[in-house]
Please model this.
Amino acid sequence: MKNLIKKILKEQVEEDLGGVPQVSDNAMRRIRVVLDLMVSQTGWDGYLESIYKHKREPHNETHMRDYLENILKLVGGGRTEAFRQHMFNRTYWFVKVFMINGGYGRNFKSGEIEVIELPIYNMEVTYSEDVTDYRVGWGELIGVGDKEEAEEVFDIGFIEDSESQDMDYSGGHSIENIEVQEVTFIKFMPEWVGL
Model:
């Protein structure tokens, strides 16, 4: 109950401040250190471009995530399982904050730092997919003269039982319905910087 009251009060304070998420002074000092150290690594803009292009985590940019993780270890992050679970969210959040607050041309030791929340759209889609199902089937024939005639006459209409052996997805599909199920947000988590 106590935690629920704290959460409601925190949300009320954020709402009163125009919905801008707030972080403690200690966390902000560590965020500044991280952002300042990010200046020496090129490629953050390419990381964001890859996200914007593919609309998902850029799997070819894991070196950027690893570089940020090493920076976060310097301020006390990276030691817990919770820290490792949210690697993409953490990286995306820091890179976005880095870029919107001036990026490479900024001295992060002074001035305002805009803290943001990034939306994640949890989607659901109904679709059909073109598939070739390779099957083996069995059935009986009667009234045929010999083996050759049986092989000539037998077709799919005589199959009484079958099983799938393999499937080949041709890539064709038809989308019936797309909808947003839920919108969640990537928010700064103090454990990212060891708090």
About this structure: The chain has two domains: 2-121+185-193, 124-178. The CA atoms of residues 44 and 95 lie 6 Å apart. Residues 2-16 form the longest helix (15 residues).
